[in-house]
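Now for one record.
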Amino acid sequence: MEYLWHNICELFTYQKDAPMIFSSGIFWVIFLMFLPVYAALKDKRKQMIVFVVAFSLYFYYKSSGLFFLLLVGTSLLDWTLSRLLVKQKSELRRRLCVVVSVVASLSILGYFKYANFFLWNWNQMVGGNFQPLDIILPVGISFYTFQSISYIVDVYKGRVQPTATWLEYAFFLSFFPALVAGPIVRADYFIPQIKENHKATRDEVYLGFWLIILGVIKKSLIADYISQYNDLIFSSPTGYTGFESLMGVVGYTMQIYCDFSGYSDMAIGIALIMGFKLSANFDFPYKSTNVTEFWHRWHISLSSWLRDYVYIPLGGNRKGTVRTYVNNFLTMLIGGLWHGAAWKFVFWGAMHGVGLAIHKASKPWLSRIPDNWIVRALSWMFTITFVSFLWVFFRADSWTDSWLIIKNIFTNFHVDYIPVFVEVRYVWCIMMAVIITAHAVPSRWWNTLSCLFVRSHWAVKFIVFIVVVQFVIQFMSEDVSPFIYFQF
């Protein structure tokens, strides 16, 4: 009995080596316990808000341990300052409230995420003996920090009114489907939904279920499986032929999409079942024929946040051509640093900034080129190549490893290994073909398929669910792989 009680306690308490994620069985067990209580409280708005906030904080505790207290502290400070801000008649005091909130949020993020990065660089400059600080990065801190900043800025600019109670703001900031890996929720979009307290229709529940199934397929089936080969390549940059390295790069390009968009699908689906709408985060980004289009389709909640709270405040395109290019570059540089405290992330962001600037500068010339399938195919090929090779810097363990992998592709490429690779890695190739085909077909086909699922008989839905679960069990790795964006 004591052993059983110990195991139960382990399931429901924070485990450093096993944080709770959407693709883990324990989450779905707890979520199924959550749903009936949530449904019973849905018509009682205040009680529902208290319950969801409590569950969200518990979810964050299961993901990051006692760091949930940091989230509570951030929400209390932001809410207090927002309420204080609207009462001030002095513009100076209003701005002071914003500055205090933003500086506090960025200081917390800076300490946990960038302290060792800046200390390492400082020691490199002065020739010191660097000993990294023992700092654990709270899961999802970058996501809720951006939400915190956008909220106080929106209150200052009059886009939203501060919430009447701290619990409503805590609901917005800690809403568990989007808490640890987005989509980044905007106050003007989400807070009115809290007040409305919309009850999900049957079609919305089924659509949410469909999105969860898609997310499980992307993450637990495809991303987790193809990652096993990709990890081999990135762990040994010169241990394979150039062709194998290239397949690892292409594989990671598809893996990070399936992993992150799979999480977003599950988050949006869970929220929809609860009666809340989260903004779309991906729109088949690998269909893009230029870098600008790619950032309109990839991590949409982040790119729109950077546009509204970094690019436009820097001047956007209002201060001349050169300044527009500089603003694009600086925005993406910040976006790169947001992803990780390492020079390879800065380089990744900077190169995307350069790509955006070059594309904008080339528009007058590009507009003279005929818009036919050959031009679109070449544009797509250039864009996917540019994006894929930059993912190397995103994934590789170091700056040096990134260049070794790229060098290996161009200096050790053997075409004769292709048939052997396809024969040995045929399941990997099938997985890759599935996600490439998913991008290739018209988007309206996916809309039609989702509608067919929503309208189908419950038995069909059940069969689809069982088939997906069986595939996941068949191809799952020994351990549940964390979502890639949890580290950000």
